[in-house]
Amino acid sequence: MKELFKEEKLARFTKDIVKKLGLGEEEASVFSDSLIIADLRGVASHGVIRLPTYVERVETGVLNPRAEMIMEQTGNAAALFDANNGFGQIAGHRAMSYAIEKARDHGIGFVAVKNSNHFGMAAYYAMMALEAGMIGLVLTNSSPAMNPFGTIVPLLGTNPLAIAVPTGNAKPIVLDMSTSVVARGKIRHAALTGKDIPVGWAVDAEGKPTTDAKKALKGSLEPIGGPKGSGLSLIIDLLCGVLTGSSLTGEVKTVTDMSGCARTGHVFCAINIAHFRNVEAFKNDVDAIIAMIKGLPARTAGAVYMPGEIEFNLTAQRKQEGIPLDEAVIETLNSVAERYSVARLS
Amino acid sequence: MKELFKEEKLARFTKDIVKKLGLGEEEASVFSDSLIIADLRGVASHGVIRLPTYVERVETGVLNPRAEMIMEQTGNAAALFDANNGFGQIAGHRAMSYAIEKARDHGIGFVAVKNSNHFGMAAYYAMMALEAGMIGLVLTNSSPAMNPFGTIVPLLGTNPLAIAVPTGNAKPIVLDMSTSVVARGKIRHAALTGKDIPVGWAVDAEGKPTTDAKKALKGSLEPIGGPKGSGLSLIIDLLCGVLTGSSLTGEVKTVTDMSGCARTGHVFCAINIAHFRNVEAFKNDVDAIIAMIKGLPARTAGAVYMPGEIEFNLTAQRKQEGIPLDEAVIETLNSVAERYSVARLS
């Protein structure tokens, strides 16, 4: 059973909780925004469902909600921030804002962040560039889940990248993708519901292709395009983990691992279109390309969708109808609410 | 039958030819370098085998070997160059050199190039960053060969990206990959030798998966990871084609199409490691990660290879033994040589 919640209600709830953890008004808004926008876009895995886990990280002392982010290096266009083990959402929002500011003057802004935490949905930060008339690019590393090509050990993260490109009348292009064939969550879901998975999603603990979801969970996710996805994930890790001096490959802790700091690293980049050409001309060209692609013969019956389009459609729908939450999720959220003397969701 | 040629001999030959086309000494060296290094790395498709095609572009007047590249926009860290329909290799080398120069002062350098041509092997330019202690990133768009996800028409290019990361004692990491599952050349080879291709490489003209190489050539290459590779290719095109104002998706001409200018666009980016942390510490960390990955249990018997490692090994071998060329290729090169009164290869 699912219940529908207006975004304002979930945002208020989320803000109330994280303010109790020590976040200021503005920080709480950013944090709640990032979760609610994920839920609106249908990316439930990065939505309010994660709130209890974030709270637990604070409670166990492996995340510092009052961390002061420090600017370690700045230049005209590039910077390194130390998130000091604060919320990835707060670090991410500040870092992307800074990248956009830098790109205003210099055409490009590039901000790397070290000692951060799980920042939720990468697209959230990439999309911040859109209003500024810029292209946003966001990278993050993540905990081990995927084998380096040719090996059988899940050392690499699924290390996602997100890119947002402004448009005129069309919906913005927002690509948000991991470097693995599928998210681990899809395999977990198949295991829970007793379903097989397609060949190519994962290998078992011996590195053999498997359709058994339970064996896959003990094994490793497969990278897209074999050595290509594996290489991309490694490069994202070298930028987010090593360029920042945050962690070596394999060292990032998953958000549910309470045994220590996550040591996640991110990269935020903004490209100022106006530095290169007239922004309206750029947007018109992108609109024309979108129209061209959407006008191509579809492979199967139905429309052709651009990256992010389904998520924009779902956002419009959920802004009207509300965001659906499972009863079990509501219960978990309410138990957090009670612990912090915040009004229950329902 | 193959004959082996010392790299110096092929370089001299290539330089002699392109100097006859109007390139100066330094430009001719860059051009020949980019081809010979591709051959050394085993990327024959971007080696001297291409020389007759480049010459033909000049002869038919669709490429201007004496083009003056113009700096249209510059900032502290970002720039736009107009290659004015000159050689992609010359434009690429200048643009990447400029990106490296900019990154020295500003932490990052980002140079986009419009109205360019096929620039050969992307890794060549990315690797230029290595000696400067920087990470190099190179993107280029290319002619239509791959379907946007969900469609059956090859509108997108295989739009490659190359990234080079400096190391200490280990061989540098050099990822050079297209966004398609395989290169079109592999399917062409299968068609010529009457072999089937694996499912997943391509679709036929009706958008149906096919193992028939001939049908695949009339159809479309498949992107890696479905919507992921398709989205990446589109983004690379928006950066190289649209941000530069060079061309819309689908408009770039392949190097063998002599009906007009290619209107290729590229992006060159250098990230100055020293701006973020101690370069030696960075390199040591990357070395440690490489050792860790190469020490993982391999999926099949044999070593685990890092991106670019096989190419470095082959380069060492070919620097000793020479570069193998087919008799047919030698013949074609010699017929160009005769036309330009240059000494034959053999």
Ordered list of secondary-structure elements with their pairings:
The structure is a homodimer of 346-residue chains.
Chain A: E1 2-5, H1 7-20, H2 25-40, H3 51-59, E2 70-74, E3 78-82, H4 88-106, E4 108-116, H5 122-131, E5 134-140, E6 161-165, E7 173-177, H6 184-192, E8 202-203, H7 213-218, E9 220-221, H8 227-242, E10 264-272, H9 279-294, H10 309-321, E11 323-326, H11 327-339
Concise summary:
The structure is a homodimer of 346-residue chains. By secondary structure, the first copy, chain A, is an alpha+beta fold.
What does it look like?
The structure is a homodimer of 346-residue chains. The first copy, chain A, is of the alpha+beta class. Chain A folds into two domains: 2-180 and 223-279 and 309-339, Ribosomal Protein S8, Chain: A, domain 1; 181-222, 2-Layer Sandwich (Wheat Germ Agglutinin (Isolectin 2), domain 1). Helix content of chain A is 41%, strand content 16%. Chain A contains eleven helices and eleven strands. Chain A has a seven-stranded mixed β-sheet with strand order 2-3-4-10-5-6-7, with helices on both faces. A two-stranded antiparallel sheet of chain A has the order 1-11. A two-stranded antiparallel sheet of chain A has the order 8-9. In chain A, helix 1 (7-20) packs across helix 2 (25-40) and helix 4 runs parallel beside helix 5. The first copy, chain A, is globular, with a radius of gyration of 20 Å. The model of chain A has no long low-confidence stretch (mean pLDDT 96). At the A-B interface, strand 3, strand 4, strand 7, helix 8 and helix 9 of A face strand 3, strand 4, strand 7, helix 8 and helix 9 of B.
